[in-house]
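Recall that a protein's primary structure is simply its ordered list of amino acids. Everything else, from secondary elements to tertiary packing, is in principle encoded there. The following example makes that idea concrete.
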Amino acid sequence: MAIYTGSNKQLGGTETVSKKEMFYYGLIQKNVLVTGANGQLGQEMKARAEITNTPFRFFFTDVDHLDITDKKQLEYFVERNSIEYIINCAAYTAVDKAEEDVDTAYLINYEAVKSIAEVSSSHGVKIIHISTDYVFDGAASTPYKETDSCNPLSVYGKSKLKGEESIANIAHGWMIIRTSWLFSKYGANFVKTMLNLMSSREELNIVADQRGTPTYAADLAEMIFVILNEAEWYSGIYHFSNSGETTWYDFAGKIQKLAGLSSCKLNRITTAEYKTAAQRPMYSVFDKSKIENKYHVTIPTWENALNRMLAADR
């Protein structure tokens, strides 16, 4: 739980836990499996778990410890460890490679997710499944609501949508959280790529006509902790990113300014000028009012989040 502002929980705040809460946490423990723990969100979940007093015992796994494409292995792990919640952060996220590696993308993003949903149903396990803005075609001009029709353009987006459908149709108690433009101090992401390239090149070409909202993985991890600590469980689809919107070009410009890497020239280019195997949504802005109202949270701006991420990475 973060700092409270009125009746709202302000994400990105300082951890505050009372003695009464710590006593409560010491008496009750719920087992939570986090898949894809070596990814950006998984590592942020792990970092938060280390500094947060909660009634949860986390099992952080990746493919080396638990192969979610093996349903028998997954079921055995859930039974042996009395798992009550699964946070599925695992995904095939190589968007362009997926256009050729179709079978693997569907194996991880759909078939493995279907197995998770089936294990959830048979063992009464609640699921928080992480999905993506790529389930939309990006043709909108106003922020996407959870009820808007999906129309993925890529193999990645189509495989993620199939996974969503499996969760919604099969799982016992489920939440799907769609997110976009994820960044953190961990792994490979746009912010870290820009920092590296701006430090080594004289100029960069950045796409300026795709619009969306960056998401700090640490803020998404904190949102998941808020959900886990909520007394009530509210199944459904939710959208989460940081507040505000930007383009990849303006995002790069903000990174450059905050990091003090002004010697690198940034050039605006169009999507048509930057050829990729997979088609990207031109517009990926989410309406977050559902998750904000349901959980009484205030989501920080992407600029604020970027500032905190860069400070944490120093």
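The chain has one domain: 4-312. Confidence is low (pLDDT under 50) at residues 1-6, 16-20.
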